[in-house]
Fold histidine kinase.
Amino acid sequence: MDERGIAAGWDLAPVLAAGGLDVDCLDEIARSLAPGLLDQALRWIGYALETEQLMTDIEDAGNRISSLVAAARQYSQLDRASYQWIDVHDGLNSTLVMLTHKIGDGIRVVKDFDRTLPRIPAHPGELNQVWTNLIDNAVHAMNGSGTLTLHTGRDADRVLVEIGDTGPGIPPELRRRVFEPFFTTKPVGEGTGLGLDIAYRVVVNRHGGDISVVPNPGDTRFQVRLPLSEPASH
Ligand SMILES: Nc1ncnc2c1ncn2[C@@H]1O[C@H](COP(=O)(O)OP(=O)(O)O)[C@@H](O)[C@H]1O
Ligand SMILES: [Mg+2]
């Protein structure tokens, strides 16, 4: 472009290159134009390419925003009935979206979902709190790198949701204590010790399910089992 006397070619070159215009292409354009028009023509092509790229960016951003909003609505359950028949995967997926930033890039997320699971009667907003607390603990245990596995499946007359991590596990002397209120091994200000207590109360007291832990180092799993049918007392 310098050879042909185009002003500020350095400014235009990246846009043209990104749009797939190479030197041969520019030669062809130069040949088909009256001398003196090349500068203006290239600038015009540059604007058109830039606008097109911006439109694509805006569309992508718009799609991302609307899927985030959908996840936030699903997560918060704001305008939904507090007790209903739910697909557990909806809550797990929206919780993952809400925690994307916290999970970070060093942690691989594996979804091992049984999509044939039936709906279950539940308080979905409260279950989202359970998934949040379990995923938060798993991510914390892995300290920035590892694999977070969300597994779902059928276990007799219950739905099993398992949150697994590749962290250090839980030493035998602490296993009985992790579900106690205010029990935490995290520094003051970081942990409240309430995450698993809340999870226990939501799962066991509110849903008639159970929660347990398989605390192996490198393969720690928190397992939640939820009944497929309504408890008689509900
Ligand atoms: N996935 C996990 N891996 C290892 N330890 C865990 C895991 N989840 C929970 N714990 C242990 O259980 C304790 C209690 O967890 P929780 O009730 O959520 O409180 P907090 O996260 O505020 O400490 C944690 O401090 C930690 O010692
Ligand atoms: Mg916690």
Summary: Residues 9-66 form one domain. The radius of gyration is 27 Å.
